Amino acid sequence: MANDARIVIDLDVPGPVINRHLYGHFSEHLGRCIYGGFYVGEDSPIPNEGGIRLDVVEALRKINIPNLRWPGGCFADEYHWTDGIGPKDQRPTMVNTHWGNVEENNHFGTHEFMALCELLGADPYVNGNVGSGTVKEMSDWVEYLTRDGDSPMVRQRKANGRDEPWRVPFWGIGNEAWGCGGNMRAQAYADLARQYATFCRDHGDNELYRIAAGAADGDLEWTETLMKAISCLGCSRTPKKIFQGLSIHYYTVAGPWDHKGSATEFDLEDYYLTLGKAQFVDRIISGHSAIMDAYDPDRTVGLVLDEWGTWWDVEPGTNPGFLFQQNTLRDALVAGTHFDIFHKHAERLMMANIAQTVNVLQAMILTDDSADGRGALVLTPTYHVFEMNKGHQGAQRLPVHIVTGPDPHPAGGYQVALLSASASTTGDSALVSLTNVEANEPTTVVLDLRGRDLAGQTARVLAADVLQAHNTPADPDRVSPRELTDVQPHPRGLQVTLPPHSFATLELLLD
Ligand code: AHR
């Protein structure tokens, strides 16, 4: 039996802009994210430009990725950027102690990352090293990347083949300083963040958006300490903030840390618990926003969720340090509900970065390195949510009210909402996203469309026979968007029937 729901959407009340950077990405020197994922080297039989995989670039261009964070993560705080410039055969190697204890040859460095961003059409978000670096090292990196004219760093950059400075809008001041980034206490890090941020200069017209390494999950005290430290005490005539944003990290981990559960083998109880944990990101963002509101009521400081997504046990037989996991329809529904929550927080949340883009955690793309696979590439169900939702980037949020719907489902202390929705407009059109979290039943939704007339619509759905469905090189389109045919006119607007466990988008043409 189908559930019934009614959702009111005020089409004529455009709200805040949904920052396109909420659809951001994260690429770390971890497992096969960079090497094998983004970068295969110039000599690879896989088509590449300067070693960067062109099939990966092509797939990511289709989802308009707005920014890419690099080189970590935990790796950022042991990365020394000068090791990754100059002739590749002369670059020193290092041990990646966080991720698999493997040797890093530094063949993918600053120039390769910037070339990747240019190919993707994405803004670079470079994460500097506070944990084991120096203020000078970070300051020099900013100069190397962004300064024009003549200076010691500019001369080095030119000697390495790049005359023009790059534009680097986003700069991270360390990562997870409370943990892998140095095991610091909040006040100690806040003082360091002020110091490092001071020497990350704006060169020419490159204005940096400096992002302080923020809290884990619900650590509100960390956020409060950073908010107290953000004002530039010595610059009362120009009350500029020392850093412009601060981050938080929140992963959807359904099990205990040492047994997070399988990505593909799970039961209904695991499923609902996962969705409960995913929806809890709303509380996490609300909590940090409330603290920020107290210190920054005009909301000039951005909250940056620069790591989010599901975290499962690694796929059997793969390196535990490489965090390679499969990606099912369940992961897609986690992404769908996250985006509805991100849109809800558009006034404060200025960026979010899923962890991670290729071959690590909740990836968009999985590549197959085996001899048989010959570098085959699979788009995950999560990729399709990003693609179906890309019209929200830079659009204005619309008020959405789920007036009636199925009762929440209790799971592990969470009350899991069984229907999730959001909408936005660019003027002539609106995009509506709907997630039917209900595992077993379809949901018939009346979209009560107010304030504008409807001139037409198209609808797509991401669904599968079972929640565990996922894509493989042998069956790459098992979970992929299809036309949603069960859409009818209704006196209030439209009536849509969503299959069980599905994600759907409707593009509405407005008169
Ligand atoms: O994304 C994997 C790791 O998770 C990152 O390196 C770190 O910042 C977080 O703990």
TrEMBL record:
The keyword Thylakoid does not apply. It comes from the Bacteria. GO terms for molecular function: alpha-L-arabinofuranosidase activity. Residues 475-485 have a biased composition (Basic and acidic residues). Its EC number is 3.2.1.55. It catalyses: Hydrolysis of terminal non-reducing alpha-L-arabinofuranoside residues in alpha-L-arabinosides. Residues 470-493 are annotated as: Disordered. Pfam families: Alpha-L-AF_C (PF06964), ASD1_dom (PF22848). The keyword Disulfide bond does not apply. SUPFAM superfamilies: (Trans)glycosidases, Glycosyl hydrolase domain. Residues 306-502 form the Alpha-L-arabinofuranosidase C-terminal domain. GO terms for biological process: L-arabinose metabolic process; polysaccharide catabolic process. Keywords: Carbohydrate metabolism, Glycosidase, Hydrolase. It is an enzyme of class 3 (hydrolase). Belongs to the glycosyl hydrolase 51 family. Homohexamer; trimer of dimers. This is non-reducing end alpha-L-arabinofuranosidase. It comes from Microlunatus endophyticus. The lineage of its organism: Bacteria, Bacillati, Actinomycetota, Actinomycetes, Propionibacteriales.
